[in-house]
Amino acid sequence: MKKVLSVMAVSAFVMTAGVAFAGGPGPVDPACPEACQQQIDDLQSSQAQQNEELGAHGQQLDNHETRITALEALPGYYVRIGGRLAWAEADFDNGIGGGSDDSDTGWGAAIAVGRTYNELRYELELAYEDLEFDDFDDADLTTVMGNLYYDLPIQDGFSVYGMVGIGYGYADASVKSVNTIAYKIGVGVSYMFTEEIAGDLGYEYLGLADNDLTDSFDGHNIVASVRFMF
Description:
Elements: H1 2-21, H2 32-72, E1 77-91, E2 100-102, E3 106-117, E4 120-133, E5 136-155, E6 158-173, E7 177-192, E8 197-208, E9 216-229
Antiparallel strand pairs: 1-2, 1-3, 1-9, 3-4, 4-5, 5-6, 6-7, 7-8, 8-9
């Protein structure tokens, strides 16, 4: 009997040792697979979120690139036709009396020919305004100006712009007519209806250099225009 028990003990030892040397399974923590799976799920969720954010940023870049490409592909020349609401504050103390005066809201119109170069536009503009002041039945202002625009694309055909202009002004009031230097600065928005037609809406400040009619002239214009490109 002792011999049988000894043989069984030796056999059990050999089998245990064989399993150990063969890399057999040891004690397993039953919580480990669940924790590992949770980590994998968290990583996959984080990766999916990052992929979604990257996709959104990529779409924005594609939109900007498309808009910029469209601007660069625009035909080089254009004709712009526009109307405007105009009002002004003027000081008529320069040799004719009258003092400071504000005009009623008047109207105006403009036509320009220009050319685009990427985000820049430069043009030659002829504009007219009809203003009424308390001291004068009528005061007309005609300007011939060179204007420079900078268009900043936003998205989906929209862009914002800033502009400056300088040139020649002819003011004709009931008491006197003068020639003087005119200048302006403005901001606005543009929208491309098609590759050949665009619309502009903006504000422009118009000033006149000191002259024999006015000591100062501050003009304001709400301008709406349509550009035909070719």
